[in-house]
Amino acid sequence: MGFLARLRLNLNEIRPMEDRRLLGISMFLGALVAFTGIDSSAKWILNDGFSVGQAVFMRYGVHLALIVVFLLPLLGKNLIRTKRPGLEVLRAAMLLTSTGMNFAAVQYLSLSITSAIFFTLPIILCAFSVPLLGEKVGWRRWAAIGVGFIGVLIIIRPGSATFQWATLLSLGATVALAFYNILSRKLAGVDSLYTQQFYVALAATIFVMPFAIGPFATQPWVLPTSSWSWVALFGMGMFGAVGHWLLTEAHRYAGASTLAPFVYGVIIPMTLSSWLIFGQLPDIWIWIGAPIVLGSGLYIWVRERNRA
Question: CA-CA distances (angstroms) from residue 179 to 133, 218, 300, 302?
């Protein structure tokens, strides 16, 4: 059997979990670096004059092109075959909403602030799991949710002179991402992860096209003004494709409960990028609020792991 045939067989099969946790954690951390690359590239080209619609279009358009070029020849119809097309489209819409709101937020906020607000994701997921997934949440986890939102209030400081309305966009992006994660749970075992990636990229590209190059575009298409802007323009989609692949592979080698705490490690590459590329250092309130949110999320993770 040739190499391409073996690769096609592997991609079409549900591969078994392999207990190689160190490799899984390493790939998971690599995915976080790739996702930092998405936000950094987006902030760069938005500062270069691109609109949010154009940035999001390139983010998913390049991702879609990479999937079509590398996966469609190997998987064929299996890539586009889905048992729940409506759910796939809705899931894609949630991720698109999250990306659009996040890109709009990074225009005005440092990456350290947006990543600190992202820490609320497990807290929001826990709160939404009650009405949407029928899960039971005890008073301890509700208390952790409350403490976590206190941490968020410390970071964004509503009502203060330094409050920026863009923090609400960042919070909205995290809420949309929580819905995306819930829909991902519902699709688990229904469609392959590669099929899910394909529909996310396809639907997002189609949805955002009118706002990038169509009748609802806020400005004419612009060209990058520097070589670094060209790199950032195409880097968003490449970082997205690589990040999602690393995330998928990480869960092959290590369980979700093992990987979950490492999501908070994204604050390190985000803060470094914010400082080294954009010259924005986190203020004292992030150092106070982020550990509170982080601790709340870790407590919820520990409780859920113990219950499981």
Answer: 11, 28, 18, 22
Q: Are 58 and 231 in contact (CB under 8 A)?
A: no
DSSP-based three-state secondary structure for 6 = helix
- Cβ atoms of 286 and 112 within 8 Å: the answer is yes
Confidence band, pLDDT 50/70/90 cuts, at residue 163: low
CA-based max dimension of the chain:
67
Confidence of residue 307 (pLDDT cuts 50, 70, 90): low
Give CA torsion, residues 193, 195, 197, 201, to 10 deg.
Answer: -170
Nearest to residue 66, comparing CAs of 192, 198, 191?
198
Which amino acid is it at 171?
L
- Tokens 């092959």 map to which residue? 252
Share of the chain above pLDDT 70, in %: 88
3-state SS, residue 83 = coil
All residues at 6 or more sequence positions from 299 whose CB lies less than 8 Å from its CB, including other chains: 140, 141, 144
Q: Are 96 and 56 in contact, with CB atoms under 8 Å apart?
A: yes
Contacts of 149 (CB under 8 A, 6+ apart): 120, 123
Q: Using one digit for the tens of pLDDT, what is the confidence trace for 55-93?
A: 999 999 999 999 999 999 988 999 999 999 999 999 999
The mean pLDDT value of the chain amounts to 84
